[in-house]
Amino acid sequence: MTDNPPNLRPDLARAFVPDTRRAGQPTIGMVSLGCPKALVDSERILTRLRAEGYAISPDYKGADAVIVNTCGFLDSAKAESLDAIGEALVENGRVIVTGCLGAEPEYITGAHPKVLAVTGPHQYEAVLDAVHAAVPPAPDPFIDLLPATGVTLTPRHYSYLKISEGCNHACKFCIIPDMRGKLVSRPAHAILREAEKLVEAGVRELLVISQDTSAYGVDRRHDLSPWKGGEVRAHITDLAREMGKLGAWVRLHYVYPYPHVRDLIPLMAEGLVLPYLDIPFQHAHPDTLKRMARPAAAARTLDEIAAWRAQCPDITLRSTFIVGYPGETEAEFQTLLDWLDEAQLDRVGCFKYENVAGARSNALPDHVPEELKQERWERFMQKAQAISEAKLEAKVGRTLQVIVDEVDDEGATCRTMADAPEIDGNLYIDEDFETLAPGDILAVTVEEAGEYDLWGRRA
Known about the structure:
The chain is α/β, with parallel strands linked by helices and about 450 residues long. It contains twelve helices and 20 strands. Among the domains are: about 15-135, Methylthiotransferase, N-terminal domain (Rossmann fold); about 155-280, Transcription Regulator spoIIAA, CATH 3.30.750.210; about 400-459, CATH 2.40.50.140.
């Protein structure tokens, strides 16, 4: 078992790919960087390749070619993607690049001219064409049968479920709309059918993701889809309600605090949806939010948070923030700290502002020196850590529902309803864990709390 503290850089994630090769089978390796949305893209690509008779390699070795799914959100993430491409070229030599950084092919080929092909985000057909050109398929129809659930890059007891692509926001620090386009929502019945199949295959937790989950269906004018003998609206409230009927945990990520989000809270209070909201607040000072081109409603947001907690006292709120944004004064930063004190968010991540090629924020005046960004980041995280520690200490003695992620010789690593995989904390059981297995959901009494994690015993 490994103590947190959680990695606050989701763009440094890695995917695990099981090795299912047969002798002589054409094999493709996969390196999947970036956020969970990119992970879903990788799963789609690998599912298509598996259906065409390719084996999937868990590493570079023995693969006939390697796909690197890149992240291009931050300059540091771009550099890390270039490093991964370079490593793949050294270890394998035959590399196909896709993902967000693929929207800038010259940036990639300028650093690594020997890559076989470069495609942009969610360009599945172009990736397949590049693989076909590099490694022709050789399917065996009697052996290469695709499992009904496709290829997954997460443990089988939880799965990310992407409900839309793109984003309609125009935040000055972000280039995701330029890379992934405007909001395009999937039909409601297609999402629900996928969710149903996942649950039937053993998934116990559905993690709903998109760039702006609460805007789901706006582009479709919240149209109706046939479902279960009736109709379901393309709206996040309706979608969440229907998913909640499937019997799995449903966790919502990347939810902007639009007024209609309050309609989700009764679903959480009823137990249909996990009492968990991942909301990218980014900052609290109205002037900073205005320079970011984000809604400047921090005070009203506090009112909304109070209303959510009044209706669902066990709700967990997670958010991410940016410190050191161009023009951020000490007074603006102090407003953010004061707001955090009042909001008492349960889970908090923080980035130091970075220029991103193509972002409008690069041209803003009064960029904050790096040493001051670091000093503010440390102050912010010190406060966030103290809030987290106090909130976890308040859970000692309570009995909570947890889901098991991993069991080894030392104990079981679990998560409560307040913890998303990879980004939040864990709950550890080090006694009476031998009969547990990943995906089990059980009651645990909390005995000890740390800065980010809990320890407990079976109730």
